[in-house]
């Protein structure tokens, strides 16, 4: 009998070190672009079934262990599982919803703070490496949400579990790798949605309350200061929380900085890199070493590994440590610009369509289309 498991159950099994063989039945190019850690690729066409060579390959890969099948949406892995069952395998599972469901697996990591009133939760979208935040005041029982993804319930539940209600929603910038949930979340809970003031110049058609450079928003006694840090995008805002934490969006990561050609284009990528250099050296690196960086992404490899950190544990870095360890921060401006504009990594899939949706110029028709646009790693770092 073939059992269906959820993507969350798959994640739990991986994290617990359970012994099974995960077989991805998608075409090779889809698999190579993005897959779950330690998955093996056996492309499967339900119309043709497994030939003897493929069946022997599965047998060798499984080596007596349970088999878990996964594909894009469950369309090919399910008949794959049934065929294995018919051919004598008695411990076969398939992941319901496939990689589409995997792309929506979340973990919530509490972030330690010096201020007892300050509550911070890092909301990790595991398959894409997107990091959003719930930042609030225990005493006021209110929070702001920063960089919400499309699964807005994750942020509402995270706030509620911390005893907080959502009072405002911020985006650091117009995202290029995933569809923002910010406007939808703000509308669902009836609160203001904020972007940086320069977002007007990008033609953002959503209604938003503009934040100017240096503007402070208070949540109870917790102070959130908006800092304009252009480079990755022209409207990028970082949010300094109680002079203790800096939510950097795609400006500064724990292992790199944001790329600059997604908005500015290849021809003007150097201008974006110059802006980013100024933002890093004249704004971020002017802050004390003990400020902790909370980035907007972590790096996920094409084979599903975290380059830094562990799922479910907060990804943070002390600014002073990054100042010493991240070589990009030690370059002069000319070398920095050259590094960022040469040999740029592959762009996020469908980034132009995603930007058009996040500025309100285009709409996404349904859940399936939105998921298809977002499939793949984030690729927002230089």
UniProtKB/TrEMBL annotation:
Enumerate the UniProt keywords alphabetically: Hydrolase, Metal-binding
Q: What Gene Ontology molecular function terms does this protein carry? A: hydrolase activity; metal ion binding; sulfur dioxygenase activity
UniProt GO BP: glutathione metabolic process; hydrogen sulfide metabolic process
Extract the Pfam families matched here.
Lactamase_B, Rhodanese
Asked if Nucleus is a keyword of the record, the answer is no
Q: Which domain of life is it from?
A: Archaea
Span of domain Rhodanese: 16-110
Q: Which PANTHER family match?
A: PERSULFIDE DIOXYGENASE ETHE1 (PTHR43084), PERSULFIDE DIOXYGENASE ETHE1, MITOCHONDRIAL (PTHR43084:SF1)
Q: What is this protein called?
A: MBL fold metallo-hydrolase
Q: Which species is the source of this protein?
A: Halorarum salinum
Q: Provide the organism lineage as a comma list.
A: Archaea, Methanobacteriati, Methanobacteriota, Stenosarchaea group, Halobacteria
């Amino acid at each position: 009998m073939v059992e269906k498991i959820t993507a969350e159950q798959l994640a739990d099994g991986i994290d617990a070190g359970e012994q099974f063989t995960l077989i991805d039945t998608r075409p090779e190019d889809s698999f190579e672009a993005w897959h779950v850690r330690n998955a093996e690729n056996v492309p499967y066409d339900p119309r043709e079934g497994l030939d003897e060579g493929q069946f022997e390959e599965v047998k060798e890969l499984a080596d007596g262990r349970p088999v878990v099948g996964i594909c894009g949406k469950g369309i090919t892995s399910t008949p794959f599982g049934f065929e294995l069952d018919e051919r004598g395998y008695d411990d076969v599972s398939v992941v319901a919803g496939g990689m589409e469901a995997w792309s929506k697996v979340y973990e919530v990591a509490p972030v330690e703070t010096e201020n007892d009133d300050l509550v911070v939760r890092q909301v990790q979208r595991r398959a894409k490496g997107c990091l959003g935040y719930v930042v609030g005041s225990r005493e006021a029982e209110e929070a702001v949400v920063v960089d919400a993804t499309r699964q807005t319930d994750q942020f509402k539940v995270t706030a509620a579990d911390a005893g907080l209600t959502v009072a405002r929603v911020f985006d650091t910038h117009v995202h290029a790798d995933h569809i923002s949930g910010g406007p939808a979340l703000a509308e669902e809970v009836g609160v203001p949605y904020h972007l940086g003031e320069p977002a007007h110049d990008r033609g953002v058609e959503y209604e938003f309350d503009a934040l100017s450079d240096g503007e402070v928003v208070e949540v109870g006694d917790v102070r959130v200061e908006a800092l304009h840090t252009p480079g990755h995008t022209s409207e990028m805002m970082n949010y300094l929380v109680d002079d203790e934490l800096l939510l950097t969006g795609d400006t500064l990561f724990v292992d790199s900085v944001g790329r600059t050609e997604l908005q500015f284009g290849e021809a003007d990528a150097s201008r974006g890199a110059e802006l980013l250099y100024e933002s890093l050296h004249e704004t971020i690196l002017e802050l004390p070493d003990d400020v902790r960086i909370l980035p907007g992404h972590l790096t996920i490899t094409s084979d599903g590994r975290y380059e830094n950190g562990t799922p479910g544990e907060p990804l943070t870095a002390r600014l002073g440590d990054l100042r010493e360890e991240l070589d990009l921060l030690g370059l002069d401006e000319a070398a920095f610009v050259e590094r960022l504009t040469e040999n740029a990594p592959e762009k996020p899939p469908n980034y132009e369509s995603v930007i058009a949706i996040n500025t309100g110029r285009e709409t996404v028709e349904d859940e399936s289309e939105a998921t298809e646009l977002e499939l793949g790693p984030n690729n927002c770092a230089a």
